[in-house]
Specification:
41% of the residues lie in helices and 24% in strands. It is of the alpha+beta class. The strands form 4 sheets. The chain has a 5-stranded antiparallel sheet. Strands 7-6-10-9-8 form a 5-stranded antiparallel sheet.
């Protein structure tokens, strides 16, 4: 050691060294009487050095030190580290400490005393105790919740099971056990399907991310179809499980299939009847026109009036049949692979209605930017034709302005046809979408009561909806929403 280091150590007193140690520290002789007591020890216990030095260390009433210190017992290897006990503070309260103890030797290797260093862990112990109590309380709550959940699941007629992340079934309710018997540590894929491997569309990765997954499948042994809802479930042990709820939808699927077939049969019937009725109308209207053109001078006014009524009634019937055919064929067209330009459809409909627009002196306009919609173009044409035709019939005479607005929103495309006419009474805003139902203003214009029913049918078939809002300042705004499920 160089001279500078030696001089430094000589000048650094024992007391100075003790003050640098961030722990309580005291020394005892072989009789366990305290011979040194540090300032930190005084701060932790409340006893100053003047009251402590010379006393036996047992005055601290240490627990469990009262059952045996172990400092001078050969059965305890030295040093002893990381042990804990409590001592009595000068004000009477107990102080939890963590301590290290060891023996002190002289130059000949003889034991001359002992040393103890300790820190106050009272607050830490309280926090640990409180945390432990909270964990135990929460664990009991979770256990109770799990028991309640299992009791509820057992009372249900739906099949239900709980499985671990490695697919082992830990619970099946009574309804499911009636089909599959006891659990016996089976895997969920062994129960739900005949194969031995994990299902191809296994929802476990998604439920582990906290997601709820819905599936439809037939279950092994039952031979019936189920909607299965897979949900993440945290157990009392903190581990994630998957809860599977299986609701029998066999009858619902059968009913839906029958309803689809009935709708298809009804549409086919309407189409057939409309076609068959339309065939004799053409010559009927033609003969009425022929008689009016060729024999008008030979007929009296009553006969001419009857021929005009025959022609007019025939044309009304022809229009009704055309509308019925349009309504019947809606739904027979698959959604297009690419979105359809609403701007192109608007231009086509405006050109188609040009004569009626001119006759009504209407002013039809559209927003500069129109979005695209994943709905068949022919049905979009039908939809706009009916909405614009409705506005031309009932609103243009009051105010010639008719506007088309459309925008793409986060979850849907919204189409708005706005007129400034007399509007639609609140009490009629649902009924006028029913076939053959016309509003109180129907006497002002011709119509079949099919157009708006066609609009609603198109909207519904492509996951949409239609409603009527009041136009600011007066009038009706027809709003059609196509949600993004339909947009693909």
């Amino acid at each position: 050691m160089n001279p500078e280091a030696s001089q430094l150590l000589k000048s650094f007193s024992f007391e100075t060294l003790m003050k640098t140690i961030p722990a309580g520290l005291f020394l005892v002789d072989t009789t366990q009487n305290i011979v040194y007591w540090s300032e930190e020890a005084a701060r932790i216990t409340g006893y100053p050095s003047s009251e402590v030095v010379g006393q036996h260390c047992s005055f601290l009433s240490g627990i469990p030190c009262d059952k045996g210190c172990g400092l001078f017992e050969s059965s305890y290897p030295k040093p002893i580290t990381g042990t804990s006990c409590s001592v009595q503070h000068r004000n009477g309260r107990r102080v939890q400490i963590s301590k290290n103890i060891d023996l002190l030797y002289d130059n000949q290797g003889q034991v001359i005393g002992g040393i103890e260093a300790f820190v106050d862990i009272t607050r830490l112990t309280e926090l640990q105790s409180n945390l432990r109590a909270e964990v135990e309380e929460r664990t009991q709550q979770l256990k109770q919740e799990q028991e309640n959940l299992r009791a509820v699941l057992d009372s249900m007629t739906d099949l239900a099971y709980i499985c671990t992340e490695d697919f082992e079934i830990s619970f099946m309710n009574r309804a499911m056990q009636e089909y599959y018997g006891p659990i016996d540590g089976r895997r969920c894929y062994e129960v739900l399907q005949t194969g031995s491997g994990v299902c191809d569309n296994c929802p476990m990765p998604q439920t582990k991310q906290g997601k709820i997954v819905r599936q439809e499948r037939q279950l092994f042994l039952t031979g019936r179809s189920y909607e299965i809802i897979h949900s993440p479930l945290i157990q009392a042990d903190g581990q994630m499980r998957k809860l599977g709820m299986c609701r029998d939808i066999t009858e619902r699927l059968h009913t839906e299939a029958e309803l689809r077939q009935a709708n298809a049969d009804l549409d086919a019937f309407v189409s057939t009847v409309s076609h068959d009725l339309r065939s004799p109308l053409t010559p009927l209207i033609g003969f009425a026109e022929f008689l009016l053109e060729q024999y008008a001078e030979k007929l009296d006014s009553t006969a001419i009036s009857c021929l005009h009524e025959i022609e007019s009634s025939g044309r009304r019937m022809q229009t009704l049949l055309e509308d019925l055919l349009t309504l019947a064929r809606v739904g027979q067209i698959a959604a297009p692979e690419k979105p359809v330009s609403l701007k192109r459809v608007f231009d086509e409909v405006r050109q188609e209605l040009a004569v009626q627009i001119l006759r009504k002196r209407a002013q039809i306009s559209a927003s500069d930017e129109l979005p695209e919609v994943r709905v068949p173009e022919s049905l979009l044409v039908d939809l706009l034709r009916n909405l614009f035709g409705n506005a031309l019939n009932y609103a243009a005479a009051t105010d010639p302005r008719i506007e088309l607005e459309a925008r793409s929103l986060p979850n849907r495309v919204e189409i708005r046809v706005i007129d400034h006419g007399p509007g639609v009474p609140l009490s009629e805003r649902e009924s006028i979408f029913e076939p053959f139902k016309r509003g109180s203003a129907a006497k002002l214009a011709a119509g079949t009561g099919i157009g708006l029913a066609t609009v609603r049918k198109i909207a519904r078939l492509y996951q949409g909806q239609v409603r009527i809002e009041e136009t600011p300042g007066g009038g009706a705004t027809f709003v059609v929403d196509f949600f993004h499920e339909a947009q693909g």
